[in-house]
Amino acid sequence: VPSATLRGRTPLGVLKLALTLAWGIWRARALLKETNPAVIAGFGGYPTVPPLLAARLAGIPSVIHDANAVMGRASRLLARFASVIALTFEKTKYLRAGDRSKTRMVGMPVRDAVLEEVTPYRTRSRADAFSLLVFGGSQGARIFADVVPAALAGLPQAYRARLKLVQQVREEDMQRVLAAYTQAGIDAELATFFSDLPRRMANAHLVIGRSGASTVAELTVLGRPAILVPLPHALDNDQLENATRLQEVGGAWCIEQADFTPERLRNEFMHLADSPDAMKEAAKAALSLGEPQAVARLADVIEELARA
Q1: SS3 61
Q2: Which of 75, 114, 187, 287 has the maximum number of C-beta atoms within 10 A of its C-beta?
Q3: 188-216, pLDDT tens digit by residue?
Q4: Could you tell me where the beta strands, DSSP code E, fall in the chain?
Q5: Domain that holds residue 300
Q6: For residues 228-247, average pLDDT
């Protein structure tokens, strides 16, 4: 189904947008007639606009689900037309007061592989090994390859000796990161991809990562404390808002990328390594935001609309 973003304010851009959306709505209405769905569900992004507008014209109920603490631009456009707005965060930025009456808190659905790893947080003593997991999305993140090795290599020997590190590293950064940890005598397992990432998250005392919707949802379902470095320059700063929500309840520490230096990370790590009770409380706070039943709750919303 054709769609387009709402960017561009030139007359030609507006005309092209209008024609593309009109064609997309026409195609979507044809598909709705062919498939005759009881409910339409949209999960954000501009490709959802024509189908949900077509559903409104056809009198088919719809639900939009927003995964972030900031309502996306497409969701904002569609909110007034949707039957239900399913939210992940109670405090969702840009949600209009007039639309709040049709919101439902369902949480962010997570994979079964994550739910299977839900176990109590393992509190450590200051003398125990410290399990640290670092990852930055499906392809890793260069900022972590630049900052984390320098931060950890500068730790006093007593901290380095207890550290058990697992880090996702991009292929082009692998050799230099490995060399830094080898020289520092740090026990590190590096890979470009971990197929068992949920298990590794569950085994970690602390996670360092970005704060996309899926990462934050998985951390809260598992109940694992994290240092979160939001992706900068993201549209509407959704990752910063996600990290802030988790930090507000005490479940994470948010460091913006401009402030994410080896010195800052080293100091944060040493403080947390010396504060196992604070880590335990952060794990508990993260868990308080988790919604392991998000899939079932969202399915309930859809079934209710279908029966209405």
Answers
A1: coil
A2: 75
A3: 999 999 999 999 999 999 999 999 999 99
A4: 40-42, 62-66, 84-87, 103-105, 130-134, 163-168, 187-191, 206-209, 226-228, 252-254
A5: 11-108+293-307
A6: 94
